[in-house]
Amino acid sequence: MNAPLSTPAAPPAPSTATRGARIHAVTSGKGGVGKTFVSANLAAALAKLGHRVLVIDADLGLANLDVVLNLQPKTTLHDVFTGKASLDAALLNAPGGFDVLLAGSGLVEYSRLTPEVRDQLMQVLQSVRPRYDHVLVDTGAGISDVVLHAVSLADHVLIVATPEPTSLADAYATIKVLAMQQSRRQMLVAVNQVTRTGEGRTVAQQLQTVVDRFVKLADNQSVKLRYLGEIPSDKTVREAVQRRQLMMQMFPGCSAAQAMTQLATKIEEAVQP
Predict the structure, then answer these.
(1) CB count, 10 Å around CB of 11?
(2) Residue 218 neighbours by CB under 8 Å, 6+ apart
(3) Taking the model in full, what pTM does it have?
(4) 203, 211, 55: which is closest to 138 by C-alpha?
(5) Residue 152 main-chain phi, psi, to 5 deg
(6) CA-CA distances (angstroms) from residue 18 to 129, 190, 229, 263, 267?
(7) Which pairs count as long-range contacts for 15-20, CB under 8 Å and 24+ apart, including other chains?
(8) Separation CA 178–CA 261 (nearest Å)
(9) Distance (Å, rounded) from C-alpha 30 to C-alpha 166?
(10) Element spanning 93, H or E
(11) Mean pLDDT of the chain
């Protein structure tokens, strides 16, 4: 984790004062950290608490939320973008009591951010916001233009990381870019796949230490990482993923499901206006 490189400026993120659902971008610097798994099961946990929840698969072109939920959509976000279907037709009820808006997979046209994609994604979020309490935007991994734009439309950012050094380095890079380009003063952190109790907090503290040292906003303000919790490495998680079932439904009493319920409660507290 070396000193950050300079990054270009960009418009600030939307204000949390905007009426309607709270929009959370669930993102990560590195693939394979369980970001989509967290998005889906966090949505189920929030729905269990009585909230209206939508998950949008914003990993445009490399979508896999449908695989995680074992859904075979006839209509996707791609159809909405191209005018082949209405937004209502693309909204699906998912197992777990929440709705999903799935993206197409293998679509090369979404590998870069065009003005059309920029406007269409913004319009979709504006349309669904009044209907829900929480909208989770499951972004792609990394810091591509498409990912950064999806995150810029969110009120809050949840960084998903694991204790692996490569995940930490990439999480730091993501935090740095979001702070510099979007002037984000606070981000949420959840640590997945921990093998011992307390490991997640240690990871979050390590990230905060490096961010304090190397990342400063234009007004010399620091970026604060709010640690939400850890999700233990649990053999039932792998079984649920292999069966394409929600862990929250298949193994509601397992340690990872209990941690996800706590995460849902803490994210509620963290984003209160």
Answers:
(1) 9
(2) 183
(3) 0.89
(4) 55
(5) -65, -20
(6) 10, 25, 27, 24, 18
(7) 15/155, 16/155, 16/156, 16/271, 16/273, 17/273, 18/129, 18/155, 19/129, 19/130, 20/129, 20/130, 20/132
(8) 27
(9) 8
(10) strand 91-94
(11) 88
Token pair 């862990």 in the structure block, residue: 247
AA letter at 220? N
pLDDT digits (tens, 9 = 90+) for 173-201: 999 999 999 999 999 999 999 999 999 99
- Per-residue CA distances from 218 to 148, 182, 210 (Å): 19, 11, 18
- Strand ranges of the sheet holding 53-58, from the earlier edge strand across to the other edge: 91-94, 98-101, 53-58, 134-139, 22-27, 156-161, 186-194, 224-232
Euclidean distance between CA atoms 103 and 124, whole angstroms: 12
Strands (E) located in 140-204: 156-161, 186-194
Neighbours of 183 (CB within 10 A): 17
- Per-residue pLDDT tens for 209-221? 999 999 988 878 8
Among candidate residues 35, 38, 33, the one with its CA nearest the CA of residue 167: 33
Q: Which domains does the chain have, with CATH numbers?
A: 30-270 (3.40.50.300)
Q: Which residue has the tokens 């369980």?
A: 34
Residue type, 193: Q
Tell me the chain's radius of gyration from C-alpha atoms: 17
12 has pLDDT over 50: no
The rounded distance, in Å, linking the Cα atoms of 145 and 122 is: 14
Strand partners of residue 139: 58
Mean pLDDT of 122-151: 94
Residue pair 265/272 in contact by the 8 Å Cβ criterion: no
Task: Give the phi and the psi of residue 93 in degrees, each rounded to 5.
Answer: -80, 130
What 3-state class would DSSP assign to 12? Answer: coil
